[in-house]
User: Fold this.
Amino acid sequence: MEYTKGIIVSVNEIGTGIFDMLVKCQGIADAAKPGQFVCIYSDDGAHLLPRPISICEAMNGYLRLVFRVAGFGTKELSGKTSGEEIKLLGPCGNGYPELAGDQITVVGGGIGIPPMLYLARKCSENGMKVTAVLGYRDSKTFLKEAFEAYADVIIATDDGSLGVKGTVVDAMKECNTFDKLVCACGPMPMLKGLSTYVEGKGGCALISLEERMACGIGACLGCIVKTKEVDEHSHVHNKRICTEGPVFDSKELDFNR
Amino acid sequence: MNTKVNLAGVELKNPVLTASGTFGSGMEFSRFVDLNKLGGVVTKGVSVTPWEGNPTPRIAETTGGMLNAIGLQNPGLDVFLQRDLPFLQKYDTKIIVNVCGHTPEEYMKAVERLSTSVADLLEINISCPNVKAGGITFGTDSKMVESITSELKKLTKKPIFMKLSPNVTDITEIAKAAEAGGADGISLINTLMGMKIDINRRTFALANKTGGLSGPAIKPVAVRMVYQVSKSVKLPIIGMGGIASAEDAIEFLMAGATAVSVGTANFHNPKVTEEIAAGIEEFMRAKSIKDINEIIGCVE
Assistant:
């Protein structure tokens, strides 16, 4: 993990409020694993906390970051232009382990889709058959074509304007696809529903979580998730999403607390 | 050039400390900061037993600052003494342990156990706004402050600094109560109690509803309170509240603080504490200040 500078190569809007940013940052790009994230600092002294942004791709010294504009920090970031510098910290978090086996399903919902791309590529390069289940609001998809290079893509939309109408779990059922290993990122209700479904069928769900953070390195204890077992840091039932996560085996988590 | 300062007999190589709760026990930040370059590390509050803290969201950004309602999650003294203190002992820096409790008895138990540890100084958190029992409920009552201070003083020879809340009508009254109880020094300020509403979700930004405001937004309040307290008690002061640069730190020293703690700024720049220590030296060179003690409390 390093605290360093990156240089913006390009920024493009690829969906309504969804931005695709390429950043040259050799150190972080070389070290990054799928599922990890970077913390990006605002230039504005009145906005102190870094924004955790998932890594969509890391290759040849470049980071690809795809994010949704949700507030001041991401709005500022979306306005960056080629050649500008940003301060960032990363790669943060545990990321996905090196995965092996015959096949895997990667699932992304909304702005949880981008980090699954790097994972899909890695798994595909490791010789796994990859199925990608992508949940969008409507037919305005993003990154779909990028996934098609590495995976059989199944689409679910909230309004049914493309693919299966309903949730990613609905789409998996309707397309009759299931792998024992499912990796996912997306909103909490989706992750809960998916985890219940996958665990119910005897599979393993590795899910990537999101939470408000301050430090991004495990010191402030702002971003905890409730776990069944006692955690190593505080010896309570709180794992740090920025450090022990953001990727957890769903069986570790206590969704009811 | 002398940057050494003295906190109730504990000599710091420079006045820069870390604010409790923002820096863990230094482990996580040690990959960005050379802890040997700091006057000391003030650890995250530790209690006798592990505390789970509050539900999430625990963090919300505000203009020029942030709200937190962590709720003093910590592993308790057993783990702290076995893991965190030995880690800090490896460094040439002073160790200031922040202590929290739900009841006077819990503070007393913690202080008693820490009295035989390698800690150089104890900072007693009687001002956390995010826990239901203890914390701020003690720190806003001057009689309680005096009695807790004197009870704790009986249990240890280590210097005791009482950490005060700004959420009071007159902070000098509380500082005087700590002095009357025998405190060796005062730390101030803890966070200001605040609230943020998420207007899109029509609910509170923090699960705890209220949280403690920190960051540059509170700095003028903190400087004013450090000044007031320095004029009303004879004790050394650890000043804090929104320090993000060497210039900020120097303001606190001039207002009357002997040392400063840097908190929220660590989240904006993980190297900031070391940069502030270097920046203070630069300021001293530029202004031909031979001894940092010359500027402590220099405003009248």
Remarks:
- The first strand of chain A starts at residue 2 and ends at 15.
- The mean pLDDT of chain A is 96.
- Residues 2-92 of chain A form a domain with the Elongation Factor Tu (Ef-tu); domain 3 fold (CATH 2.40.30.10).
- Chain A touches chain B at residues 1, 3, 41, 45-50, 89, 211-225, 233-238, 243 (CB under 8 Å).
